[in-house]
Every structure is written in structure tokens, then in C-alpha cells.
């Protein structure tokens, strides 16, 4: 697993995530595949086996941003770029709950 998926996955596991494959709290997680943050129509996708993230608005998917390695960097990028409230609030939850001792 690549970062930031690994830290986010571990955070979900440590918090007993029960909603795999469905939207809950503006998060949709698919085991060993991807974590989606936001809503069905406006979200960022963090892939399990690719560094970074990409954003989808409507049916249009943007480029993969691979320079982002950790959740704090992702939060900074999202806040700087003015992403939706759903995305920023869900990422803030991850930021506050991740244990950063993971490799």
C-alpha cells in the first residue's frame, strides 16, 4: 500500500470502520483499492497502490497528484485549493485521528 492510503486505511481500521464500499461521513472506502473523500459527485480518490490523489468533479477525473505523501500535506493542499466543505471536513477528521507511526 502507498501513502497516504496506508495511513488512512490504518486509521479506519483502528476506529473500527464498518462501512466498506458505501458512503458514510463523506468517506467511501474499498479495501485494498481506494478511499474516496467527499461526495459521489465531488471527491478526491486516494488509491491503494498509487501515491497521492486525484479529484473527480461530476464525471471528470483530474490528474494524479503524486507529490502528496501524507495526510497533513493532503489537508494543506485541499485547503489551499478551496475544495468542498465535505472534503475538507472529512480530511480534518483523518488528520486528527491518524497515528503517524505507520511506515
Explain what you see.
α2 (about 70-80) runs antiparallel to α3 (about 85-95). Helix content is about 35%, strand content about 20%. The chain is an alpha+beta fold and about 100 residues long. The mean pLDDT is about 90. It has three helices and five strands. The chain has a five-stranded antiparallel beta sheet, with helices on one face. The protein starts with a helix and ends in a 6-residue tail after the last helix. It has helices at about 5-15, 70-80, 85-95, and strands at about 25-30, 35-40, 40-45, 55, 60. A hairpin with a 3-residue loop joins β1 and β2.
Category by helix and strand content:
alpha+beta
Helix content: 25-40%
Average pLDDT score:
91
Task: Supply Rg.
Answer: 12 Å
* Major beta sheet, strand line-up: 1-2-3-4-5
Question: What is the string of helix and strand elements?
Answer: HEEEEEHH
Number of helices: 3
| β-sheet strand percentage | 15-25%
Distance between the termini: 10 Å
Low-confidence stretches: none
Main beta sheet: strand number and arrangement?
A: 5 strands, antiparallel
* Total number of strands: 5
Structural shape: globular
Blueprint (SSEs and pairs):
Elements: H1 5-14, E1 27-30, E2 34-38, E3 42-47, E4 54-57, E5 60-61, H2 71-81, H3 85-97
Amino acid at each position: 500500500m502507498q501513502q497516504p492510503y496506508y495511513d488512512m486505511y490504518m486509521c479506519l481500521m483502528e476506529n473500527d470502520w464498518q462501512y466498506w464500499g458505501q458512503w458514510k461521513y463523506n468517506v467511501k472506502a474499498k479495501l485494498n483499492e481506494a478511499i474516496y473523500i467527499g461526495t459521489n459527485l465531488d471527491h478526491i480518490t486516494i488509491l491503494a497502490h498509487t501515491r497521492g490523489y486525484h479529484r473527480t468533479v461530476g464525471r471528470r477525473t483530474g490528474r494524479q497528484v503524486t507529490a502528496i505523501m501524507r495526510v497533513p500535506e493532503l489537508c494543506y493542499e485541499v485547503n489551499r485549493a478551496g475544495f468542498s466543505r465535505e472534503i475538507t471536513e472529512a480530511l480534518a477528521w483523518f488528520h486528527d485521528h491518524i497515528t503517524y507511526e505507520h511506515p
